[in-house]
Amino acid sequence: MNTTDPAGEGSISSFPARVIVGLGGLYVTQSVIGGVVFTGLPAVMRQNGASLNDIAFILLTVLPWSFKFLWAPWVERYRSPRVGLRRSRTVIGLVGACAVGAVIACALIGPTSLGPLMVAMMIASFSSATLDIACDGHAVESLTEKNHGWANSAQVGGAYIGAAIGGGLFLVLIDHLGWTPSALIMAGVLVALALPFLTTPDGARSARPDAPRQSLMAALKRPEILSGIALISLYVLGQKWSSVLISPFLIDAGLSLTAIGVLNGVGVTVAGLIGAVSGGYVVRRFGAFPVMAASMAAQVLATVGFALYAYFGARSPIALVLLGLLSSGAISLGIVAVYSELMGRASLDQAGVDFTLFQSMDGIVSLIGWWLVSSFGDTLGFAFCFAACALLGIVALGALPILARRSSTLPGKADQRA
Question: The whole model's pTM is what?
Fold first, then answer.
């Protein structure tokens, strides 16, 4: 794939370090917002007396991540036109400003005004999801194939660092400074993280002026995309549904916001980064599907552990920390494996659209599960919900070999990467 300006100017692949640093900052930025919504805000709401039903309501703000495939083709057509200069920096700057403004609005609204807070978080989530579309497309276009591994490392590593800031540091700051100053600090962090990208050259022309028009229909007509959608759905079913319960459960178990913040910001991040870094090696060594199976099995063990802890009413912070670390490491290892498999299914002509479709299905299935366990959590209890999630994980683990066999028969799954 030619990643330089055909006219000989504005070559971005000549500066891979600057591009990767800029992309890394953007991936961290998106995950800071996600960490605030998925981890930080549920813990703060629970401490303020919110029910799990209220937490399920606020989680509707992840809808833009679930349905961003609907506007991905339009974003990509504007950002990377077939003729003329790319507009990655323009898209990131404008959409990023909306995200920062939404976080500032959250700071002024406060965590107890559920309706206005949800509107502001929805804007932040929409902006973050749109940033991810542009960021993924820019990464594929701007780096040579030998540097794609660095982009994947920036994406996975950035996700855990951002989650550590949004779900860890944010909670520690709230415990000491309160909601408004802490949320304003998060807005400042977002600006600082985006600066490396916004100061990176963005003048390369389209590598293929004759490339087909990006569209969802082009993706959905390919069997490797449909099989990939089934795969990511199964992965989420086996890995992610219990994750939304962990922060509220830790609050009910007696941990402070500072303790949860340190766990999320240090322990979970380290475990996640270890899983992400080691994942690249073990996937090359053993293949994606065996690693996915191992990570699902580890997640089932962690979820069973949470269920037993809740059922017997244990009081062991060390056990909670170990279970949280096991869950985080398993999820990160699985993410590397499943997206390594999906990478070979995306067309280079519309990588931003194809990857967005996979990520949206990830978000849709996650949202369904998070809403279910949160809605029924108050009635059925943590022990039942964790146990139900573990059972679903076992079902997914049993179905994984079927998808593995079907995927091995797909014709030309990576033909477009030759």
Answer: 0.72
